[in-house]
Design brief:
The complex is a heterodimer of chains A (112) and B (117). Chain A is mainly beta. In chain A, a hairpin with a 5-residue loop joins strand 6 and strand 7. Chain A contains no helices and 9 strands. Chain A starts with 8 loop residues before the first strand and ends with a strand. With 117 residues, chain B is mainly β. In chain B, 0% of the residues lie in helices and 51% in strands. Chain B has no helices and 11 strands. In chain B, the strands form 2 sheets. In chain B, strands 2, 4, 5, 6, 9, 10 and 11 form a 7-stranded mixed beta sheet that branches. In chain B, strands 1-3-8-7 form a 4-stranded antiparallel beta sheet, with no helix packed on it. The radius of gyration of chain B is 14 Å and the shape is globular. The chains are: A mainly beta (112), B mainly beta (117). Chains A and B meet through strand 4 of A and strand 4, strand 5, strand 9 and strand 10 of B.
């Protein structure tokens, strides 16, 4: 699976949009971009995933560049509860049971 | 949605004893489960892939005789830390693979904090 690069940390003001970038320049055509987050001392939580089109759900939006070499996770109105480590992972989706490997992630601190 | 229950949420044990951690898929069957370990301020490190009815596949550097994994049913996988030592103190997290086209693929337990004294 392709590797990803994320900034180690970011700050965001409460109520503002949090934009978390991810670089995956070696992504291949059958690989999806997944985002998970981990709030302190909890298991990771799924946020969103996408292949090449932009995606939106109740938690966030995922913007993937046309060349698919990078993406941005957008939390439209960040709250203090969104403070967490955010992981961007690239992997194939259609192979059941493929392992999920985590990188270092981005620590997002939402401040009041 | 898919729910994974992990038990216990925390445990303290004496050095040299063994500790068992359970991971259950509550509302779905999980042929494949995964075990991770996480040290403070570090990312999750995959330890092993657990497949129902067969031997687990361990990642490089993980001692299979120390971290015993059993996946005897489609809803339960267990991780036993044998002869635990203080350096085994960590946060252990399990995950179950979910099936279906379009599925996001994984659901995680809430983790087990192991402290070996």
């Amino acid at each position: 699976d392709a590797k990803t690069t994320q900034p180690p940390s970011m700050d965001c003001a409460e109520g503002r949009a949090a934009n978390l970038p991810c670089n995956h320049s070696t992504i291949s055509g059958n690989e999806y971009v997944y985002w998970y987050r981990q709030i302190h001392s909890q298991g990771p939580q799924y946020i969103i995933h996408g292949l090449k089109n932009n995606e939106t759900n109740e938690m966030a939006s995922l913007i993937i560049t046309e060349d698919r070499k990078s993406s941005t996770l957008i939390l439209p109105h960040a709250t203090l509860r969104d403070t967490a480590v955010y992981y961007c992972i690239v992997r194939r989706i259609m192979e059941y049971g493929n392992k999920l490997v985590f990188g270092a992630g981005t620590i997002l601190r939402v401040k009041s | 949605g898919a729910v994974v229950s992990q038990h216990p949420s925390w445990v303290i044990c004496k050095s040299g004893t063994s500790v068992k951690i359970e991971c259950r898929s509550l509302d779905f069957q999980a042929t494949t489960m995964f075990w991770y370990r996480q040290f403070p301020k570090q990312s999750l490190m995959l330890m092993a892939t657990s497949n129902e009815g067969s031997k687990a596949t361990y990642e490089q550097g993980v001692e299979k005789d120390k971290f015993l994994i059993n996946h005897a049913s489609l809803t339960l996988s267990t991780l036993t830390v044998t002869s635990a030592h203080p350096e085994d103190s960590s946060f252990y997290i399990c995950s179950a693979a979910t099936q279906g086209a379009g599925s996001y693929g994984y659901t995680f337990g809430s983790g087990t904090r192991l402290t070996v004294v």
